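Bumping my old thread because nobody answered last time. Still need a sequence for this structure:
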C-alpha cells in the first residue's frame, strides 16, 4: 500500500505539492496500526515511520543541490479542542493525563486557534513546530506525541484512540538553479534560487463507534459523542464534495461544522493530494459498519482536489523574470551582430505570415460556401423534397424494413411504404449532414490547432518587452552617437585652435587620426541605429501579422462554436424525430400484432366451419346415396313382387318373410326421405346465413372502396368493418367456397327428394297395399307390425328412462359445480384478507424498526 499510494505523495512533496493521508474506519479496525501513530519504542510499523524513512533517504541524495528544512507538528482534536501533542509543557504531564481525558490547557498558555490566511491557507496559531534534521529527531517527536495522545480502553479496543490525531511534516527547500548568464553567477544569487514549501498531513481519525457495542459510559460516552459528531461533519463535507450533482449545484460545503473538517479543508477539495485509507473489519458482526465505511470511501473517491506547486511569491516572480530574461537573452543573441540576417528572418516570417493569412482566408471562403450548401440542403429537406439518391444501403434498409412478416406487410401497405421511403431518406440525409458537419468540425479543429501552433511561435514573444528593449537600444545608440559627435566637434574645435607649429602639427595629426576613428564610429553607430529602426519596423509588421492571425483564430473559433451548436441542434431534432418514428412504429407493430391475432382467429373459424360443413355434407351425401339406392331398388317392384308373391306362393313362410322385408324396406325409405329432407332444410339455412355474411362483407368492401363508413347498427356490419381488408377478403373467399359446397350438396339432395316424392305420390291412398294378395298375408303383416310397434315402444320407454337418469345425473353435476364455484370464491376472499393482514403486519414492523433507528440516531447526535 505504501508503494502504491503513499510513495507518490512523498515524491510530490519534493516538487512542492501538499499531501494528506487519512485513515478512516470503525473503532478497532486498525487505523492507528496502519498509520503508525502508536509508534513506540522505536518499533517501525505503519505509514508514518515508512514516510520518514523515504523522506530522509531522498533528502540525503538531494542535499548537495538543495537546502532542506524540516518541521513537524503533532496535534490532536479532543472533544472539539485542538491540543498540541508536542508542547513541552504538556509532554511532561502526559504520563498522568493520558488515557483518561485529563488533558487541560495549562494556565497562561493560549489554546490553539485555527486561522485562515489571506490566500486561503489554513494554519494553526500557537501549535509547536519542531525543527528536525534527522530520522531520529522526527521519530522522537512522533513517539512523544503518540504517548501524549488520549487513548482509553473500550469493549472493542484495548487502546482506543479517543481523538483525531494529525502529524504534519513541513518540507521547505531552497533549490539552486542554473545561472541565466553563463559565467555570471555572481550577478544576483536570489535570482538563481527557488523556494518550495509543502506539507504532509498524516491523519489518524478516531474510530466511529456505537456506545452499545463499545460499552462506553460516562466520560467515554461523551468522547464517543464528540468523535461521532466530528466524523458526521466529515461525512457531510465528503458528501457535499463527492456528490457530483451537489457539486454542480454549488452546494455549500460545511467545513466550519467541526474543527476536524476546518483543519482538513485544504485536504478535501483543496490544494492537496489526498489519500483516504478505509480501514474495515472482516468480522460479520461488523458488516453494517464495514458497509458504511465503504460507502463513505466510495463517496470520497469522487472528490476532486486542485493541488498546486507551493512556490513562495518571490520565487514565482523570480521564475517569471528568469524566463523573460532567458527569452531576451535568446532574442539578443539571435539578433546580435548580424542585422541583415535578422532582417532576412523577419522578412521571411512576414512572408510566411502573409501566406498563412491567405490560406486562412481561402479556407474561410471554402467553409462559407460549404455552409451555404448545407443550409440549402436543409431547406430542401424541409420542403419535403426527398433526396433522389438511392444508394444500395438505402435499398437494403428499405428491404429490411419491408420484409419482416405478414402483418407488417399488411399494415405497412401502399401508403405506408412511402412513409418508410421518407423515413430512410430522412435518416440517410441526417447521417449525411452529420457526417459533413463532423468532417467540417474536424477540419476546423485541425486548422485551429495549426493556427494555434503557429501562434505559439509568436505567442512566446513578449512583444511589448521586445519593443521596449529595442526602443531602449535605439536611445542608447543615439546617446552614444551624440557623445561621439560631441567628441568629434570638440576635436575639430581643438584642431582649429591649434597653431601651425610642429608641436601643433603633431597634435593636429593625432586629433585628425582620432577624428577619423570617431567619424568611423559615428558611421557605424548610424548604421546600427538604422538597423535597429529597421528591426523595430519589421517587428511592428510581424506584430500586425500576429494580430491578424489572432483575429483569424478568433473567427475560426466562433465558426467552430456555431457549427457545434448546429450539430447539437441537428442531433436534437433528429432524436426527437426518431423518437416520434419509433412511437409510430410501435403503434404499427401493435396494430400488426392485433391483425395477426385476428387473422389466426379467422383462419381457425373458417377451418372449423369448413370442417363442420364438410362433415354435414358428407352425412347428407351418404343419406342421399342410401335414398337413391333404396329408390333404385323400388324401381322394379313388379319383378320383386313377382319374386315375392308369385314365384314362391306355395311356401307360406317364405312369403311372410318377403312381406316383412318389403315392409322394412318401405319404412327405411320413409325414414331416409325424412332424414334427407331434414338435412336439406338445415343446409338451406346454413347456406342462407353464409350468403348473408358474404353480402355484408361485399357491401362493407364497397363502402370502404368509396371511402364511406358502413351503416352503423346493422347486423354484422360492425364486425365486418372492424376486420382488416385482407381478413375480409380471406373470409369472403372462404364463404364462397363453403357456399359452392353446400350448393352442390343441396342440388343432389333436392333431386333425390323430388324423385322420392314422385314415388310417394304413386303409393298414396291404398296403392302401397296392393302388394297384399290375401287376407292371411294382411293378417300376418298386421301381426308383424303390431309386434314391431310393441318392441319399438318398449325400447322407447327404456330410452326415456335412461334419458331421465342422465338428466338427474346432469342436474347433480351442475349443483356440484355451483358448490365448488362458491367454495373457490370463499377461498379467494380469505386469501385477500390474509394478504392484507400480512401487508399491515410488515408495514408495522418496518415503522417499528424505523422508530428504533431514529431513536438511535438521535441518541448518537445528542
Ligand atoms: N493489520 C493488522 N495486523 C495485526 N494487528 C492489527 C492490524 N490492524 C490492527 N491490529 C491490531 O488491532 C488492534 C486495534 O487496532 P487500532 O488501535 O489500530 O484500531 P483503531 O482503528 O485505531 O481503533 P480506534 O478507532 O478505537 O482507535 C490493535 O491491537 C492492533 O495492534
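Sorry it took so long. Here it is:
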Amino acid at each position: 500500500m505504501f508503494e502504491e499510494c503513499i510513495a507518490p505523495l512523498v515524491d510530490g512533496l519534493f516538487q512542492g505539492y501538499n499531501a494528506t493521508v487519512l485513515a478512516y474506519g470503525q473503532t478497532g479496525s486498525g487505523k492507528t496500526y496502519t498509520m503508525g501513530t502508536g509508534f513506540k519504542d522505536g518499533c517501525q510499523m505503519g505509514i508514518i515511520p515508512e514516510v520518514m524513512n523515504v523522506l530522509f533517504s531522498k533528502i540525503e541524495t538531494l542535499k548537495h543541490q538543495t537546502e532542506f528544512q524540516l518541521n513537524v507538528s503533532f496535534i490532536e482534536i479532543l472533544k472539539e479542542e485542538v491540543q498540541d501533542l508536542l508542547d513541552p509543557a504538556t509532554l511532561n504531564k502526559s504520563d498522568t493525563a493520558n488515557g483518561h481525558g485529563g488533558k487541560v490547557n495549562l494556565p497562561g498558555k493560549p489554546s490553539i486557534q485555527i486561522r485562515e490566511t489571506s490566500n486561503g491557507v489554513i494554519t494553526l496559531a500557537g501549535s509547536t513546530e519542531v525543527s528536525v534534521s534527522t530520522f531520529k529527531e522526527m521519530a522522537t517527536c512522533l513517539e512523544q506525541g503518540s504517548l501524549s495522545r488520549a487513548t482509553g480502553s473500550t469493549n472493542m479496543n484495548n487502546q482506543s484512540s479517543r481523538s483525531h490525531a494529525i502529524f504534519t511534516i513541513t518540507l521547505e527547500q531552497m533549490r539552486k538553479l542554473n545561472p541565466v548568464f553563463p559565467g555570471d553567477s555572481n550577478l544576483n544569487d536570489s535570482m538563481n534560487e527557488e523556494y518550495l514549501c509543502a506539507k504532509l498531513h498524516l491523519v489518524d481519525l478516531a474510530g466511529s463507534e456505537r456506545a452499545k457495542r463499545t460499552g462506553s459510559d460516562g466520560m467515554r460516552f461523551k468522547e464517543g459523542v464528540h468523535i461521532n459528531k466530528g466524523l458526521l461533519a466529515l461525512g457531510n463535507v465528503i458528501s457535499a464534495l463527492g456528490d457530483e450533482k451537489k457539486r454542480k449545484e454549488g452546494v455549500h460545503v460545511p467545513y466550519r461544522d467541526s474543527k476536524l473538517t476546518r483543519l482538513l479543508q485544504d485536504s478535501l477539495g483543496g490544494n492537496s493530494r489526498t489519500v483516504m485509507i478505509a480501514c474495515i473489519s472482516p468480522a460479520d458482526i461488523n458488516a453494517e459498519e464495514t458497509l458504511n465505511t465503504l460507502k463513505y470511501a466510495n463517496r470520497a473517491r469522487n472528490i476532486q482536489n486542485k493541488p498546486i506547486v507551493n512556490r513562495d511569491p518571490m520565487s514565482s516572480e523570480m521564475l517569471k523574470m528568469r524566463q523573460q530574461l532567458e527569452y531576451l537573452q535568446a532574442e539578443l543573441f539571435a539578433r546580435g551582430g548580424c542585422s541583415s540576417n535578422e532582417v532576412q528572418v523577419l522578412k521571411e516570417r512576414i512572408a510566411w505570415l502573409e501566406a498563412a493569412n491567405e490560406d486562412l482566408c481561402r479556407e474561410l471562403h471554402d467553409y462559407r460556401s460549404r455552409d451555404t450548401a448545407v443550409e440549402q440542403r436543409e431547406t430542401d429537406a424541409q420542403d419535403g423534397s426527398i433526396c433522389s439518391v438511392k444508394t444500395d444501403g438505402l435499398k437494403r434498409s428499405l428491404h429490411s424494413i419491408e420484409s419482416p412478416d405478414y402483418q407488417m406487410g399488411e399494415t405497412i401497405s401502399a401508403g405506408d411504404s412511402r412513409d418508410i421511403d421518407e423515413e430512410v431518406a430522412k435518416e440517410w440525409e441526417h447521417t449525411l449532414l452529420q457526417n459533413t458537419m463532423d468532417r467540417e468540425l474536424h477540419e476546423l479543429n485541425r486548422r485551429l490547432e495549426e493556427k494555434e501552433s503557429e501562434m505559439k511561435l509568436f505567442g512566446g514573444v513578449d512583444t511589448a518587452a521586445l519593443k521596449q528593449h529595442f526602443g531602449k537600444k535605439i536611445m542608447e545608440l543615439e546617446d552614444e552617437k551624440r557623445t561621439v559627435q560631441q567628441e568629434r566637434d570638440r576635436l575639430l574645435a581643438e584642431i582649429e585652435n591649434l597653431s601651425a607649429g610642429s608641436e601643433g602639427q603633431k597634435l593636429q595629426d593625432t586629433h585628425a587620426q582620432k577624428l577619423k576613428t570617431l567619424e568611423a564610429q559615428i558611421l557605424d553607430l548610424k548604421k546600427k541605429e538604422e538597423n535597429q529602426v529597421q528591426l523595430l519596423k519589421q517587428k511592428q509588421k510581424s506584430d500586425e501579422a500576429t494580430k491578424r492571425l489572432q483575429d483569424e483564430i478568433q473567427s475560426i473559433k466562433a465558426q467552430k462554436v456555431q457549427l457545434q451548436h448546429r450539430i447539437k441542434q441537428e442531433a436534437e431534432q433528429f432524436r426527437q424525430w426518431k423518437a416520434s418514428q419509433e412511437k409510430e412504429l410501435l403503434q404499427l407493430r401493435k396494430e400488426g400484432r392485433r391483425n395477426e391475432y385476428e387473422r389466426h382467429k379467422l383462419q381457425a373459424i373458417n377451418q372449423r366451419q369448413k370442417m363442420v360443413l364438410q362433415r354435414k355434407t358428407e352425412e347428407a351425401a351418404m343419406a342421399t346415396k342410401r335414398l337413391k339406392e333404396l329408390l333404385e331398388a323400388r324401381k322394379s317392384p313388379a319383378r320383386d313382387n313377382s319374386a315375392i308373391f308369385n314365384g314362391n306362393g306355395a311356401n307360406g313362410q317364405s312369403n311372410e318373410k318377403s312381406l316383412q322385408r318389403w315392409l322394412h324396406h318401405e319404412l327405411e325409405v320413409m325414414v331416409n326421405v325424412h332424414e334427407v329432407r331434414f338435412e336439406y332444410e338445415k343446409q338451406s339455412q346454413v347456406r342462407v346465413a353464409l350468403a348473408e355474411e358474404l353480402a355484408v362483407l361485399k357491401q362493407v368492401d364497397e363502402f370502404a372502396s368509396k371511402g364511406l363508413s358502413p351503416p352503423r347498427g346493422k347486423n354484422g356490419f360492425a364486425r365486418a368493418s372492424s376486420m382488416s381488408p385482407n381478413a375480409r377478403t380471406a373470409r369472403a373467399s372462404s364463404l364462397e367456397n363453403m357456399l359452392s359446397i353446400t350448393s352442390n350438396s343441396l342440388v343432389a339432395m333436392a333431386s333425390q327428394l323430388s324423385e322420392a316424392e314422385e314415388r310417394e305420390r304413386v303409393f298414396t291412398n291404398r296403392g302401397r297395399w296392393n302388394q297384399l294378395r290375401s287376407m292371411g298375408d294382411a293378417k300376418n303383416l298386421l301381426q308383424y307390425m303390431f309386434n314391431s310397434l310393441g318392441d319399438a315402444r318398449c325400447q322407447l320407454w327404456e330410452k326415456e328412462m335412461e334419458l331421465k337418469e342422465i338428466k338427474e345425473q346432469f342436474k347433480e353435476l351442475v349443483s356440484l359445480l355451483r358448490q365448488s364455484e362458491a367454495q373457490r370464491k370463499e377461498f379467494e376472499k380469505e386469501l385477500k384478507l390474509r394478504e392484507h393482514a400480512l401487508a399491515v403486519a410488515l408495514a408495522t414492523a418496518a415503522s417499528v424498526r424505523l422508530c428504533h433507528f431514529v431513536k438511535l440516531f438521535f441518541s448518537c447526535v445528542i
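The two ends are 37 Å apart (CA to CA). Let me know if any region looks off to you.
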